[in-house]
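hiii, so i know i said id send this last week but things got crazy w the move. better late than never?? heres the sequnce for the chain we talked about at the cafe, plus the structure i predicted for it. fair warning i was half asleep when i ran it
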Amino acid sequence: MLSFLLATALAFSEANARTAFASACNLVASCTPRDAGTARGHFAANHLRNAALLQGANARIETFTAPTPVGMREFHNVVAEWEVCPTGKWVVVVSHYDTKPFVKCPGANDGASTCGILIGMAQAASKCRNLPGNLMLMWLDGEECMFAYGPSDGLWGSKEAAMRLKTSGRDIKSVICLDMLGDANLKISLPRNTNAELRRLAIDCARRTGHEGLVTEMRESVKDDHLPFRSLGFSAVDLIDFDYGSAPGLNDYWHTSRDTIDKISTSSLLIAGEIACEMVNALWR
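okay and structure toks below
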């Protein structure tokens, strides 16, 4: 009881948002391209692990091989953990870092922005003296498909991560997937093919952090890293801004050379980080 009373909520501050933005800038500048299954992808994994280590996280790389439309490839997930209670429940937050294959795309919003948020969360968690619960952050490889999503194309990192969690025997409370949340004109959507309870929680956490109306439910489903976790029975939700372009509805920056760092903002990263951390806190209660 005493340890619970002394526990401190995970908070995402303006300093964490600045760290997130700087991390996104560094990833784009140093690791473009970073297509899955390539040497550049491996370089990006090392870059992210080092960035997480710099913030005090106990980060590691989990390497695996998997079939792709162009043959067997090697992939690299980056994982950081904060274990408060060995038998307690875990909240897992994930983002992919890879860029779209065969396209000259910097992936500033689609990948780098939410990787930066996770670095900011790592900073916040490492400085929090008494976390209320177990936290795992994952920077996932291979979300982007090469040609069309299928059993051997796309979502490689999340498939591997979900399988490892399943076989680990850990008690996973929920998985929160973050994607494309750096857009300066931020509008967070919750795809239909996610956990309904977590969708309601995300909307409530937006309200509690002063961002009411910014998070809304979609009628459509989205193919993203939450799906492999859901397929193995985990409670998972996807927070994504799928309106990313020069005008509403165009989405013309996505998967193009126009997905550049000038399109993302520190204020959007702060908002997304605040909502994500409030969800983590709520799931720990």
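btw The chain has one domain: 2-284. thought thatd interest u
miss u guys!!
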